[in-house]
Design goal:
By secondary structure, this protein is of the alpha+beta class. It is built from eleven helices and twelve strands. The protein is rod-shaped. The structure holds adenosine-5'-triphosphate (ATP) and magnesium ion (MG).
Amino acid sequence: MLLNNFRASVRQETDRRISEHSFVVSTITNNVLYERLQRNVLMLDRMKVANNILNLTAEPLIVDGKTLVLSENGNISSDSFEPLSACTDYTDALEASDSEILTYLLDDGNAHYLLTGSRNYIENEPYSIITVADISGIFDSHYSELRNAALVSFVAAVNAAVIIAILVYRLLPLKRVNAMLQKIANGSYTLKLPERGGYEFRELARNINVMSDSINENVEALKAIADGRKQFVDNFAHEMKTPLTSILGFSDIMRVKKEMPDEERVEYASIIFEETKRLKNLSSKLLELATTENAPLEFEVLYVPDLFSEVRATITPLAAKKGVSFTVQPAGCFIRADRVLFLSLLYNLIDNAIKASEQNGSVALQAAADKGILQITVTDNGVGMHPEQLRHIAEPFYMTDKSRSRKNGGVGLGLSLCAKIAARHSASLSVKSSPGKGTVVTVSLHCQETAGEKGAAE
Ligand SMILES: Nc1ncnc2c1ncn2[C@@H]1O[C@H](COP(=O)(O)OP(=O)(O)OP(=O)(O)O)[C@@H](O)[C@H]1O
Ligand SMILES: [Mg+2]
């Protein structure tokens, strides 16, 4: 655009100078004609013509052979116009042209000149008349505009570079966030994004870290559930296989053997009976486990002494069968519980205590209420457990002594069931044990002094 403006200015100046040139030439011609008429001569000689032209301008007029160079007022002060010698191509062209006005831009290193020339016949003699105009002003203003434009471009370029640098600096963390999100999407949930950069990026990084933490926790929890289920299924398959193998093996022997002493037959039949009992125990415990988790409970207010009487009636003959004494000491309060499930909890704990006891051992079911909390304890003086064994007893199918438990028809699900029943009653279960001395299992839950109180055990 600057170049176009400049070209337009030069063109305008050229047009103006051509008009001026034509005017100067016609003035010279008229003056010469006037002088010739005044002098009443046929033709003015060259000197007269030159003088005439000299009179026209205040400044010297250079007569260079027949080339007349007319300076613009004041612009060319020397009596010869030196730069003209550098543009012989122009003077040659002028020499050859006829009645045509030729322009020429001349740069002598100090100034820019516009030469406007034409070939003219004065007093029958050919003269090349060149008028010179100093148009350095146009060039100067063009150069200054160019300088300004360069400066503006430079400032704009610097600004753009600064803006791009800031944008790149600001967007770098976004790249980091993106890379991290891709890794999280691929399963690397433990990765942490550095909480750096501007406020928004720090917040974003913090939220992404919180998100990946929570994803990680959920994934770990799901893994634990999946692992637990797999473990459960493996153990279950194993617990099914053992009794079934015995039953199958001994029943086959009894089927195949035609003659068999009574003693042997009773032994095999007893094994089949015991293993079948174990399978029955396994299936009923599994059913209880499954229903305890999800089934709706039928809560009712139970009077603890009544509950304990029911337990005593069921347990006493079983304990007596094993030569174990069973004592009951209730507390006179009420609890809110699902009767069937809560009885199952107590039966399982007492069953474990009797199974752990030797002959002549003793098992006690006791209760004590204090400040709205009832503590029910099942105490035995049986084999007891090591702390390491204690840590696992609530895991499904865990048995500290498998052969002993199996002999007693155990499958290792009783305490898992107890833990679930306790959880559904908002009760806590704790076990204290010492090897060779015995075990105390405590169930703690809310209780109320009268049957009508509300809020307890809810
Ligand atoms: N009072 C106790 N004294 C000693 N060991 C015990 C006692 N209670 C539980 N245990 C140990 O904890 C294990 C798990 O008990 P749990 O009741 O879950 O299974 P179980 O009694 O073997 O079988 P079941 O599924 O028939 O109850 C038992 O096998 C036993 O080794
Ligand atoms: Mg048990």
